[in-house]
Each structure stands twice: as structure tokens, then as C-alpha cells.
Specification:
The complex is a heterodimer of chains A (60) and B (257).
Chain A (H helix, E strand, L loop, with lengths): L24 E4 L2 E4 L2 E5 L2 E5 L7 E2 L3
Antiparallel strand pairs in A: 1-2, 3-4, 4-5
Chain B lengths: L4 E6 L5 E6 L5 E4 L3 E5 L4 H4 L15 E5 L5 E3 L10 E4 L7 E6 L6 E2 L4 E11 L6 E7 L12 E6 L5 E6 L5 E5 L1 E2 L2 E2 L7 E6 L7 E4 L2 E2 L16 E10 L7 E11 L2
Classes of the chains: A mainly beta (60), B mainly beta (257).
Chain lengths: 60, 257
């Protein structure tokens, strides 16, 4: 049996994106702010910057 | 203190009938077909909570103790009238847990109209890396937010109350609890904590009757038995130093079948 060439293991893109912790600085919906809440619905991650404020899509 | 009992349906007009004290917001009765209540009164509680994995016949609770110091889950001797159960960490620098739960008997169905309510106090606010959590959870895993599924009130060392949810599917998150726009920094007094799942699209968290999450901020769509839970009370730290003590005076769960 011949040696297998060295290759990187296949990358996995199936892991879910971590939710940002409350109190951290992020950019979402074009705004920078401190995370008041973070949630995942489906594949999307959204954050809000205050009580009753809109949920904004978290930017990469 | 005076009492003024009022009543309402949750959700309005079509839901479960509840009676509550208008001054304290504590639910005092319900016409829900499923009811589980414990004021932690009686010899079973004072005799000692059985260890996780070794429940006692006729007794709902077990305790999970991690740490050599050790942490405790017990009814204090001479506990005040009305009953009490206390989860407490010790001061050692080590991984510790003091949890009170139902030995992984998952029997509270959050996919039907209902609510769970506690009267509880942070007798020792979390310090260092310690956490306190109160709510509903799936089977035991060390660390409240490491559970597979949960609906919980959670406090870290800054005493700011956060709300945590995870339905085992796509809905998960954490949110700072707020009232009148301001985050809630919990004191050491007793408060009424209520989680209301009358509306699956809008889980409500309440403290002393005031809703502390905005409308439509928490969606909930557990599939199948993912929506079935046990009560969860815990003080926890993964390592290091930190104290925390949670005193639970009562739990009431009201639910449709």
C-alpha cells in the first residue's frame, strides 16, 4: 500500500456560529454596540442593543 | 401585608385561569389540569435530599454535589415557616456545583399552555466565576448553559439578571432582563420569578409580575419531547473561586395536559 499524500483534513462548515456574549462589542445591522441580547433563529444570528430595540443581523 | 386576590386567563380569554396576589404578583391558585407545587415543607425535606441517581420513593428531588469543600443542597435547620430549600457553593477554589432537580425525570411540557413560578432569593450573590440559575432544564449536565435545552433565569457575578433559552432546535439565545428599559440588578430579597409559555411564539419572563423581556423577543418551537423539562435550581462554577447561594421558598408549575 502506498503512503497517502499529506493533506489537510476536510474543512467543516457545519458548526453553528457562536452567539456573542452579553456585554461584548459587535457590529450588527450597520451599527456598533454592546450586546444586550443575542439569539439564533434558524441559521441566522441576531443581536439587540437594548430592551425592546430591534433585533439586527450580526455581521461577520 | 394585605392581600388582594385577582384573576385572569393566560393567554387572555382562552387560556388557563390563574389567581394571583395583586400586591406581590405571586400566583396563588390555578385551574390548570396539571399542577406541581412544592413549598419544601415536611420531614422529607429536613431529612436530607437524596443524591442524584438515588432518588427516594415519594420524594421529587435529588441533589447534585460537585466539590470537596463541599457545596450543599439542604433545608437549613430551623428553617423559617413556609419551608425553604437552599443551594450553596463553598469557598474553595475548585469546580463546584449545588443543584436541586428531579433526577432527570422530564415531565413538564412547555409545548402546552402553562407557567412555572418560583419565590426565591439570591442569599449570597454570585462572586468570582460562580453562577446561579433557576428555571427548567433537560437532563443533568455540569453547568446550566451546558444543558441541551433550557428556559432559565441566570445570574453571573455582576448580579445582572439574564434570560436563557434553548429549545433543542434552532431557537437559542440569551437576553439581559430589563424593566422600564433598565437592566435588572437583583438584590438579596425574595422575588417572584415566573416563566410563562402560554404563547409559544412569545415566551414571557416575569419578576414580581413585571415582564422583563420585550414582546416577541424569545421564540420557542421545541420539537416532540424536546419541550419537556424538569425544574432546575443550581449554583455552579466550572473552576476557581466564587460563592453563590440560592434560597428557594416555593415552586409552582401549572400546565395544560
Amino acid at each position: 500500500m502506498s503512503d497517502q499524500p499529506d493533506t489537510d483534513p476536510p474543512s467543516s462548515d457545519t458548526s453553528e456560529r457562536e452567539l456573542p456574549a452579553i456585554g461584548t462589542q459587535v457590529v450588527a445591522g450597520g451599527r456598533q454596540g454592546v450586546v444586550f441580547g443575542a439569539r439564533r433563529v434558524g441559521d441566522a444570528v441576531a443581536v439587540t442593543f437594548g430592551h425592546g430595540e430591534p433585533w439586527l443581523p450580526l455581521e461577520p | 401585608m394585605a392581600t388582594m386576590t385577582r384573576a385572569e386567563f393566560r393567554p387572555p380569554y382562552v387560556g388557563v385561569h390563574y389567581e394571583y396576589d395583586a400586591y406581590t404578583a405571586e400566583t396563588v391558585a390555578s385551574c390548570a389540569p396539571f399542577q406541581f407545587s412544592d413549598d419544601f415543607v415536611g420531614a422529607g425535606h429536613s431529612a436530607g435530599v437524596p443524591a442524584a441517581g438515588s432518588p427516594s420513593a415519594g420524594y421529587a428531588w435529588v441533589k447534585k454535589i460537585v466539590g470537596a469543600a463541599p457545596p450543599t443542597v439542604a433545608q437549613p435547620s430551623g428553617a423559617a415557616a413556609g419551608g425553604l430549600m437552599v443551594c450553596a457553593l463553598a469557598s474553595a477554589s475548585e469546580a463546584e456545583e449545588a443543584s436541586l432537580y428531579c433526577n432527570d425525570s422530564l415531565q413538564i411540557d412547555t409545548t402546552r399552555i402553562g407557567q412555572a413560578e418560583w419565590r426565591a432569593a439570591l442569599t449570597q450573590s454570585p462572586t468570582g466565576v460562580a453562577q446561579i440559575a433557576l428555571g427548567l432544564g433537560s437532563v443533568w449536565v455540569g453547568g446550566p448553559v451546558n444543558l441541551a435545552r433550557y428556559l432559565m433565569f441566570l445570574w453571573n457575578a455582576n448580579n445582572t439578571l439574564t434570560l436563557q433559552w434553548k429549545d433543542g432546535g434552532s431557537n437559542t439565545g440569551s437576553l439581559t432582563a430589563a424593566s422600564a428599559g433598565a437592566a435588572i440588578v437583583t438584590d438579596g430579597n425574595y422575588h417572584i420569578y415566573r416563566i410563562d409559555w402560554s404563547n409559544q411564539n412569545d415566551i414571557g419572563f416575569y419578576v414580581d409580575g413585571a415582564r422583563v423581556n420585550a414582546a416577541s423577543s424569545i421564540a420557542w418551537a421545541p420539537s416532540g419531547t424536546n419541550g419537556v423539562f424538569q425544574p432546575w435550581h443550581t449554583c455552579y462554577k466550572a473552576s476557581g473561586s466564587g460563592l453563590a447561594t440560592l434560597s428557594v421558598d416555593k415552586i409552582d408549575v401549572f400546565n395544560n395536559r
